[in-house]
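User: quick one, sequence for these tokens?
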């Protein structure tokens, strides 16, 4: 099978074949004991800058779970660190910025990202692609709003009050900040695609904290700039955020081919809101991974049935794999999706046609 015929790329282009593709956000690392052993004594950012570790960690879940795609092992902070932003990823906390952005002068730290800044990314991507064969590698980057929120808040936030305040009170500063971040994210994704990644995902993890009006006015144009640049490279673009049920049409319109959906909205309803020009990705609630298998398996089937109402469906969680997840559960989910998925999707689609009068 040629790479272009892979189940994931076909679904992303709304050409769902006889295999329902599946991968997991944060499958590279976190829950795998082999990952924790490899990372022993090595910081997150240091591990992301070592091509040997990145290659091995990216491939570990492909070997263990037989997922249909690899997700490049990195962090949304990597390109910011690469251009000299003073930051660290603190265990149990997340990214911590030494000097948060509050004024125009602070933007001087955000220079353009050059391919040479992340040469280790190109090296790792090439090595991974050589091992994957007919499975695609998904590159990824953080969207401008999510990156801006870390830079303004100085770290994770519950309400993003500083970010929203700056966005509204200092629109010119906000525009300059997000324009620079859009260029950085687009450059980071371009490096990955040019080295061999055959799809990308733009994470706007915290966009769900915004109203639709603020998202449309202050955020969507910058995500659109990233996705437009990547679109010129000819690879499918996945756009994902958490708590974004009211933003899904806007996220699709920003330039996605696939819209990622968290667990709060059934995929059938998500597809109805987004429209027929987009595939969907998701959306099993990751909190359910600890449920008894018969219960969990039926929830997996429910997601497949709901996803059958979309023109293309890539099975995934509604957010990342929790670190306490039993890896064997993920393997069982993959097996279920591969063995039962096509039949469940076909039955659900036929029922939908009868119900709607299309049969």
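Assistant:
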């Amino acid at each position: 099978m040629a790479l272009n015929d892979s189940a994931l790329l076909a679904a992303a282009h709304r050409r769902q074949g006889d295999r329902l593709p599946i991968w997991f956000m944060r499958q590279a690392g976190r829950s795998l004991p082999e990952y924790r052993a490899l990372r022993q004594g090595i910081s997150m950012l240091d591990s992301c800058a070592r091509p040997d570790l990145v290659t091995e960690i990216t491939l570990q879940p492909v070997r263990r779970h037989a997922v249909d795609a690899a997700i490049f092992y990195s962090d949304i902070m990597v390109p910011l660190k690469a251009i000299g932003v003073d930051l660290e990823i603190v265990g149990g906390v997340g990214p911590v910025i030494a000097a948060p952005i509050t004024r125009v002068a602070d933007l001087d730290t955000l220079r353009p990202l050059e391919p040479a800044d992340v040469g280790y990314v190109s090296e790792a991507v090439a090595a991974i692609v050589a091992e994957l064969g007919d499975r695609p590698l998904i590159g990824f980057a953080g969207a401008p709003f999510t990156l801006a929120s870390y830079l303004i808040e100085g770290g994770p936030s519950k309400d993003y009050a500083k970010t929203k305040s700056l966005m509204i009170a200092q629109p010119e500063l906000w525009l300059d900040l997000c324009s620079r971040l859009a260029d950085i994210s687009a450059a980071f994704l371009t490096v990955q695609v040019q080295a061999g990644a055959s799809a990308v995902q733009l994470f706007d993890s915290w966009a769900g904290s915004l109203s639709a009006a603020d998202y449309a006015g202050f955020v969507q144009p910058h995500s659109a700039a990233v996705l437009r640049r990547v679109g010129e490279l000819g690879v499918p673009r996945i756009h994902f955020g958490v708590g974004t049920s009211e933003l899904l049409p806007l996220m699709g319109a920003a330039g996605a081919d696939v819209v990622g959906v968290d667990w709060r909205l059934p995929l059938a309803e998500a597809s109805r809101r987004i429209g027929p020009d987009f595939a969907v990705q998701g959306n099993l609630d990751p909190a359910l991974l600890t449920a008894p298998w018969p219960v969990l398996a039926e929830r997996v089937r429910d997601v497949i049935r709901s996803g059958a109402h979309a023109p293309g469906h890539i099975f995934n969680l509604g957010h990342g794999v929790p670190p306490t997840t039993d890896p064997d559960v993920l393997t069982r989910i993959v097996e279920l999706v591969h063995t039962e998925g096509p039949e469940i999707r076909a039955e659900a689609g036929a029922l939908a046609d009868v119900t709607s009068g299309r049969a």
